[in-house]
Design brief:
This protein is an alpha+beta fold. Helix content is 32%, strand content 39%. Strands 3, 4, 5, 6 and 7 form a 5-stranded antiparallel beta sheet that branches. Strands 1-2 form a two-stranded parallel sheet. The protein starts with a helix and ends with a strand.
Length: 148
């Protein structure tokens, strides 16, 4: 009898966990932040560095429809372009502190000297979201502008 109860409880728990993670809220917040940033910067296209981006991240249809965004691929650029540098955007590490999630998007410049790739960051914006228990959703709390 205990085995049957354990199996039923385990089954219910696994269904609850799977259902709770069916919507990827982090990807939604990333897309919202990217869209806001590109509108604020008046960008219609961008090269985005893949570092610090979640493995399963995909740009939303809204972002794809409004902007031309590609991920940086070293093989798509000739040496002279890489030597001059490629303007791009990068996502800095995402920070979750208590019930506040911070997403930082920075301007970046990618250059190559010899076989070494250098990525330098410039101005950036941090989008702070706070989770609302009453509404059961993340809400944009603040946008902080910073730079070098």
């Amino acid at each position: 009898m205990k085995i049957k109860i354990s199996i039923v409880i385990g089954f219910i728990f696994s269904i609850t966990v799977c259902y709770g993670q069916s919507a990827n809220h982090l990807n939604d917040l990333l897309n919202e932040s990217i869209e806001e940033y590109m509108l604020k910067e008046n960008l219609d296209k961008a090269v985005f560095l893949k570092e610090s981006v979640p493995v399963d991240f995909e740009f939303s249809k809204a972002v794809i429809d409004k902007f031309e965004i590609i991920f940086f691929d070293r093989n798509k650029y000739c040496k002279s372009e890489l030597k001059k540098g490629i303007k791009s955007l990068r996502l800095l590490p995402i920070v979750l502190k208590s019930n506040t999630l911070s997403i930082t998007i920075a301007n970046a410049f990618v250059t190559q000297k010899g076989k070494n790739i250098t990525i330098s960051s410039g101005d950036y914006s941090t989008y702070e979201y706070q989770y609302s228990c009453e509404k059961s959703q993340w809400e944009l709390l603040n946008i902080k502008e910073s730079g070098i």
